[in-house]
Amino acid sequence: MKKTVHPSFFIFFVCLLATPLLQAQGPDAFGYTWKDSNDPEGPVFEWIDISAVGTEVMGLGDDNSVAAMPMGMDFRFYWSDFNQIKIGSNGWLSFDNVSNIASCFPILPTVGGPNNLICPLMSDLNFDNNSPGKIYTYHDDTPGDEKYIISYENVTFWTQADPIFGSNTFQVILSNADSSITFQYGAMDVDFTYTCTGSGKVAVGIENLTGEIGLEVFSGVVPPSNYAVKFYYPEVITLSITDVAPISNQNDENEGIFLLPDEMVTFTSTIANTGNTDITTQIAVAATVQQLDGTNIYLDVQEAAPLAAGESAVVNFSPANIDWAPGPYFLDVLTALTSDVNPNNDNNITELNVVDLSAETLTLGYVLGVNGAGLIQWSGGGDGSGGAGIEIEPPFYPTVVTGAEVGIAGGSTDGFTIRLFDDDGPNG
Q: What predicted TM-score, i.e. pTM, was given to this entire model?
C-alpha cells in the first residue's frame, strides 16, 4: 500500500482491514516474492482481453476440472519446467494431475493433497445451474514476450441460498520471458459469505510440487476489482534441490509401444537430474512389468551413474524373456535416492501392447476404458490450426493402414478433422 500524506492515513488503514494480505511479500523458501498494483514498483493492472482470440474451455461445472491442456510453451515453476496445465472450476490451476479441489479449501502451502498449484481465486465457484461463467485460454507467442493466459470471466460463486451468486472476472498470465506469474482482477464480487472461513473460503497464492513451499496473498477475502498481483521468479536460487526422475521409457515420443508375442525386448529409461544440485552417488533404478491385473512378470534393478544438475542418462535393463500373451501390460520404472525431495515424479509408467497376430486386422491403440485423467484435450483455433496428436509405431513393417477411430468426449459443434501423417515423410 502507498501512503503519501497524513490525510490519506485513515483511507489506507481501512483498505488494510478490507483486503488483508497474509504474509509479507516473500520470499518463500525457494525465493519467490510478490508485489501488487498498490506498490509503486509492482505490476500495473492492464486487463488482457482474450475472449475474441482465445479458446473457450468446455466441460467445467461445479467442483471439477478438465484434462491437462497443452500451453504451447515451456513454463518454469519453482525448479521444474511444464508444458501443460490442469484448469479447475474452483479457481485453481495445477501442473499435477489434480482432479478436483473442493471446499473447505487448504491454506497455501499445505503438505499432502493437491500440490503444484497456482490459485488466482481458489473458492467455491460454479459453472453449473445456468451460470454465465466462461474460461478462455490463449498462447501469445510474441517473440520476447511469450505468455500463456487463462481468463475466468463472469464466474459465479456457489452458495446454499443461491448457486449462481455474484460475478467475478480474473485472469492468470504465465510469462515465458521471466517465469513470472501475474493475477489480474477485473470486476469482482467481494460481498461473498460462506460457511467455510479463512483459506477454507478463499485462498489466493502459489504452492510448489511438494506442498512445502509457497506464498499465500489472500485468505478468506476476495481480491478487489481493478487489481493485480505479480509473483517474481528468484534471480538467485539459494535452496539446494535434489530431484531425480525417469522422464521417459523406451522413447520420448509417447508413453506406449507395441510388441510382438515372441519379441525379446530390452527396456530402457532416461533418468534425469531435474534439481539444481549435482548428484554424486549412484541412483537405483528398478523396472517392473505388470499384467493388467497387477501381477508382476518381470523385475530388474540397475544403477545410474551420478548426474550433474540438468544432466540425463539412459539406463538399459536386462532383456525381458517373457512369453507374451496378446493384450496390455505396463512397464513401471522407479528411481530411489535418499536425498530426493520430490517423490511425486519418481516413477514413469509406459503401456505395452502385445498384438494378436492371429487376427485378420490388427487394431493399434492405447485405450483401456474411458478415464478423464488420460484424455487428450487441447485449445483448438477456429482456423483449424489447433489440435493434438499421438505417435503410433507399428511392431513390424511394411504396414497398411486401413482406417482410424477416435473417441470424442466433447467439444465444439464445428466438427473435427482426423488426419494421418507419415512420421518420416512430407508433413510428418
A: 0.80
